[in-house]
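USER: Study each token:
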Amino acid sequence: MTLDRAVMMFAGVMILISVALAYFVSPLWHLFTAFIGVNMFQASITGFCPAANIFKKLGVKPGTAFN
């Protein structure tokens, strides 16, 4: 698995978890979903992604997006 796919999978899982928490626990969890979306947006513009940095340190091999 490359870094790009790991970051996208992580973001997708976090979104699904936050939507489930918003449905079953509290609608305030939608704020977490929005935070994830804002983070993805800024990463697409700046190229800086905190999750990518963490995955790099864990040894995930680089892809093309987060060099």
Remarks:
- The radius of gyration is 13 Å.
